[in-house]
Amino acid sequence: MSKTTEPCSCASEVRLPCISEADFIPSVVSQLAEGFTSRRWSSHIEPVEIPSWRETVDLILQAQRILFPGYFSSSTLPSSSSLGYHIGHNLTLFHKNLSQQVNSALRHECFRRNHSCSHCGERSSQIAAAFVRSLPEIRETLETDISAALEGDPAAANADEIIFSYPGMFAVLVYRLAHRLFELEVPLLPRIMSEYAYHRTAIDIHPGAVIGDSFFIDHGAGVVIGATCTIGRRVRLYQGVTLGALSLPKDAVQRLKNAKRHPTIEDDAIIYANATILGGDTVIGARSIVGGNVWLTKSIGPDTKVLLKQPELIYIGKDGETKQKGGKGDGNI
C-alpha cells in the first residue's frame, strides 16, 4: 500500500512576504523609541539608576540565610562557636547591598519628583542601618509565626518543615521585611519584595498592612491583604481569603489614596477559605470566626460566628434517578 503524505503542519493559506530584517527592524525601532522618548509609554531612560529587581530579590534570600542560619546555605554551617563570624560576614554584605538599593530607590524618587538629592546617600546609609538593627525584633516575631503554624496545623511535623516548605511562612517573612522598609519610607523596594513573594506563593500582602505576631496563613494560595488592612495577634487565615477595599468611583481614587480602605481583623480571629471581607470601616471582632465563602462588608462583634447555610446537595445514581437529598448541617467550617 502506498503511504499517504500529509501536508506540512506549517502550511497555511495566509501568504506572508519574504522580507529581510533590514526591511522592518529600523521601522519598529523608530516607533518604539518615539513612544518612549515622547513619554507616551512608561520607561526608565534617565541618568539616575533605578533599583535592581534581581538585587532586591537577592536581599530577601540573603536575609533568609541570616535569619534562618543553616536552612538555606549551600553548605553545612561551621560549629556554633563560629556562628557569630558567619552571621557577621553575611550581615556586612547584606548591609552593603541594602544601602546600594535604598540609595538607588531614593535617588530615583527624587529625580521623578524633581527634588534635590543632596542627602540621599547619607539617608540611605541611615535607613540601611536602622533596618539591620530591626532584624533581631523581626526574627523574634517570625518565631511566633512559626509557633502559630505548629499550633494551627496538625499536619505540620516540626519547625523545620514550616521554615523549608510552607508558602505562608515565606510570604509572611517577606512581608515583615518589606513592612519595615515601608515604615522607613523606602520607595519601590517593599513592593518589589511583596510582588516576588506573590510570584512564588500566590499570596499577596501589601507591605503597608499592619499585622501582629503569631500570624498563620494555612495553604495560602489566593490570599489578598490590602495596604490599609490591620490584623491583630494570633489571627489565622486560610486559602482564598480576601481582605480588600470596596469599589471606588474614579473621582475618589486619588482623594482616598491614603484613607483606610481595608478591614480590621482583631486578635484571635479565624477566617476560613474563600471568605471576602471588604471596607475600611469593617471590623471583625476578637475571637470571631468567619466561615468559608462568606462575603462581609459590615462589622461583627467579638466572639461571633458568621456562617453560610449549608447548601442542599443532590445525589444522582448511574440510572439517573435522584438517590438522596441532603447536606444541610451546622455551617461551612
From TrEMBL:
Gene3D superfamilies: Hexapeptide repeat proteins, serine acetyltransferase, domain 1
A Gene Ontology biological process term: amino acid biosynthetic process
Domain of life per record: Bacteria
The keyword Phosphoprotein is assigned to this record: no
Keyword Transferase in annotation: yes
Top-tier EC class: transferase
EC number(s) given by UniProt: 2.3.1.30
GO MF term set: serine O-acetyltransferase activity
Keywords, alphabetical: Acyltransferase, Amino-acid biosynthesis, Transferase
PANTHER family with a match to the protein in the record: SERINE ACETYLTRANSFERASE
Protein name listed in UniProt: Serine O-acetyltransferase
Species annotation: Candidatus Electronema aureum
Lineage, broadest ranks: Bacteria, Pseudomonadati, Thermodesulfobacteriota, Desulfobulbia, Desulfobulbales
